[in-house]
Amino acid sequence: MSRVPASVTHADHLPDDARAGGLGAVVVPIPAGRLADSGLDVDLLGRLGFEAKADQVQVVAPDDGGPLVVAVGLGPDDTLGPTSLRRAAAVAARACKRHGAVAVRLDALGEGLAPRVAAQAVTEGV
Fold this sequence. Notes:
Layout: E1 23-31, H1 42-47, E2 57-60, E3 68-75, H2 82-95, E4 101-104, H3 115-125
Parallel strand pairs: 1-3, 1-4
Antiparallel strand pairs: 2-3
Helix pairs in contact: 2-3
């Protein structure tokens, strides 16, 4: 089986034409205590049984035809760290293996991890 090496690029925001640019999914790692602040449809996620438990994954297709949203639970806020984020990135990578391009939003982490530490953990997990 041939594997394509991962490529990581940092950006402050997703481009408006993300779908046209080939972006297949947006991963949002979420600590359980920050689910309401994630910017995602919390009611829909709740109906689907998503509680942001560690390693829990929920894929949602947005109504606007944009990239899939892949919510990945990080578990309790007090367990947030590079190890839990690295593991969540690995879980997300498996969930997104059919997509050539995937973005990861780190804003739902809040102030729990320094941005540089979070980006490093995600890169290592993928």
